[in-house]
Specification:
This protein is of the alpha/beta class and about 250 residues long. It has two domains: about 140 residues, Response regulator (Rossmann fold, 3-Layer(aba) Sandwich); about 100 residues, LytTr DNA-binding domain (OB fold (Dihydrolipoamide Acetyltransferase, E2P), Beta Barrel). The strands form four sheets. It has a five-stranded parallel β-sheet with strand order 2-1-3-4-5, sandwiched between helices. The protein has a five-stranded antiparallel β-sheet with strand order 10-9-8-12-11. Strands 13-14-15 form a three-stranded antiparallel β-sheet, with no helix packed on it. The longest helix has 14 residues. The radius of gyration is 21 Å and the shape is elongated.
Length: about 250
């Protein structure tokens, strides 16, 4: 049983989330609800929850400021938000769980299931720092990569390319190392859009275009800084050429 606290300045939103959790997530025990960050701090100190369902935009203090009241963070956070597309990508690459308002049942149950998997190995403070940094700069610069033994915190500039491996992905780094992660390439494609300079050249490859050293004359292959030769599918050749031209005008 996971102990939980709900924090939202809207009473109706608190009641709806409470109802959904009781009905669809029996593994969650709701210990308290709070209308703002000061009341949430008191509830957390009293009940020591495993997870806090936390609204972001609230009067007085935002949900992001909650962590400023704690030296040690020993609880997970699932944000409830109506944020922009960019912010949602920032949540994803930082491995911070969120529920998009209005909350959907499948989204809630998926978030709780993920919470159960990472409980006790969450690195919440480090992940929050990455999230806040990405949001402040309005650019994805760092991501969290989940590994079986924990989490890896990675600068986007350190990634040369990703290669599909069934339902997994191999991530190749600038220093010559690589890791395999239990996410497919589509998950990363959705997170690392063209704004960050990554491009899906082929069903098997997602590359960091800043590390291309050569493109073949027929546009079917790209050589990367680590000497890897990446296929560019026939269907993606024109889009890829347009993308490279857009990133390197003139």
């Amino acid at each position: 049983m996971l102990k939980a606290i709900i924090v939202d300045d809207e009473a109706k939103a608190r009641r709806i989330l409470e109802k959904f959790l009781i009905e669809y997530c029996p593994q969650i025990q709701i210990l308290a609800m709070a209308e703002d960050v000061p009341h949430a701090v008191k509830a957390i100190q009293e009940y020591h929850p495993d997870v806090v369902f936390l609204d972001i935009e609230m009067p007085g203090y935002s949900g992001f400021q909650l962590l400023e009241f704690f030296e040690e963070i020993d609880f997970e956070i699932i944000f409830t938000t109506a944020y922009s597309d960019f912010a949602l990508r920032a949540f994803q690459v930082s491995a911070i769980a969120y529920l998009l308002k209005p909350i959907q049942i499948d989204q809630l149950t998926n978030a709780v299931q993920k919470l159960e998997k990472i409980q006790g190995n969450s690195f919440i403070k480090e992940r929050m720092e990455i999230l806040q940094k990405n949001l402040e700069e309005y650019q994805i610069k760092k991501i969290v990569i989940p590994l079986s033994e924990g989490s890896l915190f990675v600068e986007l500039n350190d990634i040369v390319f990703l290669k599909a491996e069934g339902s997994y992905a191999n991530i190749f780094f600038k220093d010559g190392t690589k890791v395999i992660v239990s996410k497919n390439l589509k998950d990363y494609e959705d997170q690392l859009t063209v704004e960050e300079g990554f491009f899906r050249t082929h069903r098997s490859f997602l590359i960091n275009t800043k590390y291309i050293t050569q493109i073949s004359s027929d546009g079917s292959e790209a050589t990367m800084v680590n000497q890897s030769v990446i296929n560019i599918s026939r269907e993606r050749k024109q889009d890829f050429a347009n993308f490279i031209k857009q990133k390197n005008p003139g």
